[in-house]
Amino acid sequence: MPELNLHWTDDQDLLAMFVLNRVSASARQGLEAHLSTCEQCRRAVQAEQLLVAGIKRAGREELKARLKERVALRRRFEVTWYQVAGAAAAIVVLVSIGIYNRWFTAGEKERAPLTVQEQHEVGKLNTPPDRSKLAEKGKEKGEAPAAGAGTSRPRRPEKGMATEALPAPVEAKSKRAAEPEVAPLQIAAAQAGKEAEALNKGTLKATTMWVEGTVLSHGIEDRAAPQLYAPLAGKKSAELRDRKNEAQALTGQKQRDFVGGKEKESIIVAQRSLPDLPVSRKARRQEKNTIETLFQRTSGRLHVTVYLDTLVSEPELQTARIMPIGEDSIILNLGSQRIGYKMPPGWRQVLAPETGKER
Amino acid sequence: MKSSLVFLNTDAKILDLIRRGDEEGLVMLYESNRRSIVAYVSQNSGTPDDAEDLLQESLVVLWERVRSGQFEYRARLSTFIYGVAKNMWSRRLARMRREAPSELDPEEHSDGALSPLDDLIECEESELVRRALERIGEQCKKLLKLFYWEELSMEEIAVQMGFANADTVKAKKYQCKKALETVLREVLERRGS
């Protein structure tokens, strides 16, 4: 009769339970007692222990590796409080810089239009006015500034306007005082050119304001303005006609009651091609397809520079007309185009002649 | 009182995760205990890397105890981990001292602890098994690990691995164990030759 299970280690389950310490204390005692007398059983237990140790080791190593990986992954995406604080600080700084640029330095960065002389050379320029008109201008140049203008400070501009009113050079002021009543054509053109050049170089600072214009029509006749200006054109057609007759906006000439409400003043209308438009405005224009126009107030003149994709001819520029319509609108007739401007609140204060004067 | 309840609540959640085999519980413990373990090891001649390794091993101990049902909640889990890490670090320091050339005196090992040579042999043997495991197929490897390391019952393994019943697992386990022994024998024979 064959021996049946003389060695308990032949029972694989029992062997595993013994090695894993999952047998009761009393059973363990009995099994250990057998081991002391059975060499074969001891070897079986040792082999099982080695196997279990290796499997456990593998399990531990793999768990450690997975744990390490998960912790590393979590740390990679972890956002600490100081990272949040740093990002918030960076946003605050960037926003501050943006606000600073928009409110205080935008005007300085924009390139002023070409000088009269330069524009003339490239054929983009308003030609000087005729002598009869200059006679009127000469009279006005000798006039004293409006009461209180020397002491009044420019009012704070509305949002969206970039202003910087700085005193005009003393030399320029004294020159103005000594100007004859009727300025010769060449002198007027040269003065306008010098001023534009100074603006261009940044040596003469001006109160600047960008306004987006809308092409209302392509005829110079007084047609009903579409959409935005429709009510305006309808209600004020009579007024518009009257003002149109009055308005004179030729280069170097004085136009009555444009913004100041007191005196006639000198307005220089110039044009520049679209590629010259500052980048910041280009983006805006692409969004809205508007006519970007730069209004610059110096102590002596108001410069209006229109950025066009197709430049108008010299004669068309000569006959350019600009006129206010109501309190918040301006119409510019330039060549065959009729451009309407919805002016921001407070624009008259910003572009008033006093703004560009010495403080 | 309120804060200890919070701890109890957190510990209970972690233990529940571990019992269900979710390792996220260990990650949570890793993050909350890392600083204290690094501080302890750094103050006791160790480096931050030693501390990280020690923390991982302590967490593995906790995992094994909880999974095998041998864990008793007597103190906060952080206390348990700190205690395990401390003991392990003491043993590791003692082993390093023994391994130092100036201290290779046989009498130093008369306390019954394993000699460096025994350590090495044990380590090497279990490493051999670990490597052999890689050669018996994923299913066998997983089954043996669930049985010997995770100490799951045959029924639990059947559910987890999608076997029909405990008997099927038992038969499969027997096959896998034989396969492992065969690979091991081959490895040892190759080494011997």
Structural notes for this entry:
The complex is a heterodimer of chains A (359) and B (193). About 35% of the residues of chain A have low confidence. By secondary structure, chain A is an alpha+beta fold. Chain A folds into 2 domains: 70 residues; 247 residues, no CATH class. In chain A, helix 1 packs across helix 3. The longest helix of chain A is centred in the N-terminal third of the chain and has 39 residues. Chain A is rod-shaped, with a radius of gyration of 43 Å. Chain A has an 8-stranded mixed β-sheet with strand order 2-3-5-4-1-8-7-6. Chain B has 8 helices and no strands. In chain B, helix 2 crosses helix 3. About 6% of the residues of chain B have low confidence. Chains A and B meet through helix 1 and helix 3 of A and helix 2, helix 3, helix 5, helix 6 and helix 8 of B.
Please outline the helices and strands.
The complex is a heterodimer of chains A (359) and B (193).
Chain A: H1 12-19, H2 25-35, H3 39-77, H4 81-109, H5 116-122, H6 131-141, H7 170-177, H8 185-201, E1 207-217, H9 230-235, H10 237-246, E2 253-255, E3 265-273, H11 279-288, E4 291-297, E5 301-308, H12 314-318, E6 321-325, E7 329-334, E8 337-342, H13 347-351
Parallel strand pairs in A: 3-5
Antiparallel strand pairs in A: 1-4, 1-8, 2-3, 4-5, 6-7, 7-8
Helix pairs in contact in A: 1-3
Chain B: H1 2-19, H2 24-43, H3 48-67, H4 77-99, H5 116-133, H6 138-149, H7 154-161, H8 166-192
Helix pairs in contact in B: 1-2, 2-3, 2-4, 3-4, 5-8, 6-8, 7-8
Question: Summarize this, please?
Answer:
Chain A has helices spanning 12-19, 25-35, 39-77, 81-109, 116-122, 131-141, 170-177, 185-201, 230-235, 237-246, 279-288, 314-318, 347-351; strands spanning 207-217, 253-255, 265-273, 291-297, 301-308, 321-325, 329-334, 337-342. Chain A has 13 helices and 8 strands.
Quick tags:
heterodimer, A: 359 residues, alpha+beta, 2 domains, 8 strands, B: 193 residues, mainly alpha, Rna Polymerase Sigma Factor, Chain: A, Arc Repressor Mutant, subunit A, 8 helices
